Amino acid sequence: MSQHQPSFLRTHRLHMLRGAVLWLIPFLLVTAWIWHKSPETLKAWESRVPRAEAAIATVYATPGITDKSGSTFNGTDGPPATVALIMTHLGLSPPLVERALKDLPPTVTLAFSPYGDLQTHIAAAKKHGHEALTLLPMEPGTYPNDDPGPKALLTRASEHENTKTLTSILKASNGAIGVMNYMGDSFMRNEGQMNAAFETLRIAGGVFVERRDTHTTLAVAVAERNGVPYLGTDANIDSDATEAAIQKNLLALEDAARKRGTAVGVVEPYPVSFNTVKSWAQTLEKRGITLAPLSVVLAHRKAQTSTREDTPRENHAEQ
Length: 319
Known about the structure:
By secondary structure, the protein is an alpha/beta fold.
């Protein structure tokens, strides 16, 4: 039996080798066919796969679309419209600041927290062509449950203490075009405290931007009384931080700019906000919208106010 064993092993190996070759030949043939046809196949597959950017392209780049409000956007038709966008709550996370500087158009205004390195961030923003604001923490109606931090202006603090706090923030804000409230609906309803704060803002110069919500404040009246340039925002773009909601709010912001000439929106540094705003900004020119720095919108609104104030006198003179 031992004499036949080597012969058996050789025969068995030969059969295994023959079987492997028989399997290898069709495998190679199929592989060659797939390789030859792969460009066609991939093209066919891609034509049937939904594109991730289709939603943005459809909403922002196609002339003649109609949103739910009934507004139709036909390329550059319609009156000139200017939009400003502020990205807020930057400064506590260096990667978010870097992304804002890298991904956002320089016409987007950046608002930085006083609890970060203000001077470094403002300088970096200016270097990349952005206008900068400093966030001014103020007492909210839900204080102390919602605490704006140790640099906040508080109704329970003395006017002297608040002025000292505000002065230190403004001193660290060299290069910013102004300040924007962080919280503050309670503080901005206190006329005495607001007068003291706005007197300090007038001396320092710059604009006060009010991030408006449902609360009524004294900011407009006190700013006018103290000679402080005032600008109120029109929309919180990503209060619902989903792509569809952000797209809808951006379209509404455009519509507001078409009706009034200018509009100001605020966005947070959410990943979805970065992506959606970046795509939206690339298509604005096609629809006759200008994305401008905040100071440009402020100048437009001053001009509109001057025109309205002059009109009655002109009419009276004609009569």
